[in-house]
């Protein structure tokens, strides 16, 4: 969303008379982008839809606390990433999986997901990405798939650009090693 448009929507979000319509614009504009970011983290379509709803619910119930110091998109991405991490931790606990283990349960769900239309190479890439720690996985997905700027990621994660570049570099190396280990 262009800066001017985002500023206008933020103004409308602060006005009780226009808040609902403005939030509907936010959902329309950011819904698909947030869905795909969430989907890359949790892999399953239904889980991603549920987490997207949770993200917008949290945003709506906390809209009065949005101070406008960061971009609206940054605030929404933060909520979405936190929702994903909470969900994944809950899934690990239910599946008795250590945080250090590969999230194999996600891969199994992806294989059974009727909405996944990837081939064997895409499945292997997803398997490689699942070997990454959560934050590194999120950074990798944002940079590799969305070509998001490090500055924007820095606002989302509250981390320096240098740390994010290092995280992405390490993630790429790990993914490359995984994909080439049997060659």
From TrEMBL:
Superkingdom of the organism of origin: Bacteria
Domain RNA polymerase sigma factor 70 region 4 type: 123-174
Record keywords: Sigma factor, Transcription, Transcription regulation
Pfam families to which the protein is assigned, alphabetical: Sigma70_r2 (PF04542), Sigma70_r4_2 (PF08281)
Entry keyword Transcription: yes
Record domain RNA polymerase sigma-70 region: where: 30-92
The keyword Ligase is assigned to this record: no
Ranges annotated as spanning the membrane: none
Entry's family note: Belongs to the sigma-70 factor family. ECF subfamily.
UniProt-recorded name of the protein: RNA polymerase sigma factor
Provenance organism: Parabacteroides hominis
Lineage of producing organism: Bacteria, Pseudomonadati, Bacteroidota, Bacteroidia, Bacteroidales
């Amino acid at each position: 969303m262009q800066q001017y448009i985002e500023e206008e929507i933020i103004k409308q979000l602060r006005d009780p008379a226009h808040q609902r319509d403005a939030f509907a614009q936010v959902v329309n504009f950011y819904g698909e982008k947030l869905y795909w970011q969430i989907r890359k983290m949790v892999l399953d379509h239904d889980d991603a839809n549920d987490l997207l709803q949770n993200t917008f619910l949290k945003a709506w119930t906390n809209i009065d606390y949005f101070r406008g110091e960061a971009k609206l998109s940054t605030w929404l991405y933060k909520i979405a990433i936190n929702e994903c991490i909470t969900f994944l931790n809950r899934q690990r606990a239910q599946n008795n999986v250590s945080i250090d283990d590969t999230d194999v349960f996600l891969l199994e769900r992806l294989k059974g997901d009727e909405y996944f239309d990837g081939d064997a190479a895409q499945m292997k890439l997803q398997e490689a990405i699942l070997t990454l720690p959560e934050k590194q996985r999120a950074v990798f997905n944002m940079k590799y798939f969305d070509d998001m700027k490090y500055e924007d990621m820095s606002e989302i994660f509250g981390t320096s650009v240098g740390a994010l570049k290092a995280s992405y570099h390490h993630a790429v190396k790990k993914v490359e090693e995984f994909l080439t280990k049997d060659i």
